[in-house]
Predict the structure.
Amino acid sequence: MIPAAFDYQRSATLDDALKAIADGGGTVKLLAGGQSLLPLLKLRLGSADRLVDIGRLGELKGVRRLPDGRLAIGAMTTYSELAASSARHYGVVADALPTIGDVQVRNRGTVGGAVAHADPASDLAACFLALDAEIVARSVRGERTIPVDGFFTGPFSTALATDELITEVRLPGPRDDAGSAYASLEQPASGYAMVGAAVVVFVAGDGSIEGANVALTGVGPHPYRARAVEAALAGSDRSAASLAAAAAHATDGIDVVGDIHAGREYRTAMAAVYTRRAIEAALARLG
Ligand SMILES: Cc1cc2nc3c(=O)[nH]c(=O)nc-3n(C[C@H](O)[C@H](O)[C@H](O)COP(=O)(O)OP(=O)(O)OC[C@H]3O[C@@H](n4cnc5c(N)ncnc54)[C@H](O)[C@@H]3O)c2cc1C
């Protein structure tokens, strides 16, 4: 399909890009890796008067360690670059990245684009929720930091204002008492998660589970934190029965999606299975 006509502008500086989206009033869209935006335009499911290409903004690329130990991931860092960076030491990220699309998607798709696009089945969104990441957004009005929990507000919608650009995603520093993992049931053709579970578990000195962050994707209208699973895991032992009982709460309070790939009942059942597997894998990483 041929998209409707649009203007194209390549930004030379971040300020240029911010000014363009501020002046555009929602009719100007940022072009990052184009992996979601271009198909949407071609299928005419979306439109834009102008695309502002941020692909050459070097300051949005790369992964760096902040002085306090946190990891800052530039918005224009591709999935492939992320896999080669120190972010690969987060088990949950290392597990999820190879499951995303194919080589082409991973070479072009960016972290900022994935977060801003807010696909209800985004793998990275679940990882960032489980890791308690922060999203840094900039506009001509200034900069703000948004906790990822609450950032995803619905299918393809976020807490970003139309004039805001994501500059980076920050992950908390690694902890010796934390293990993490991602487990997903993929739609075989696209690689999209029909169910994806991202888990970070925190373990006490006696080996019991002190707490956990559990996030699911592909299951509800947007990626979400499964609070009931987290509550059931806190203080729990590591027996198979306890983990399965906690994972059974994976869809509590969620309007589970049903589609041609997986009906509502099947997805609900698989959410519990893959949540349990991710918890087990996260614990196994702690030995
Ligand atoms: C064949 C195929 C298979 C895929 N499989 C998977 C999969 O298995 N799992 C998965 O999670 N995803 C999958 N995807 C989706 C892919 O991961 C995302 O499309 C991609 O990461 C989006 O990043 P991008 O850089 O390409 O964004 P773009 O397509 O360039 O932009 C997407 C949206 O985000 C906005 N945007 C981009 N960057 C910023 C920014 N810095 N600040 C604010 N707004 C911004 C754009 O304006 C646009 O609205 C697949 C895509 C394809 C084409």
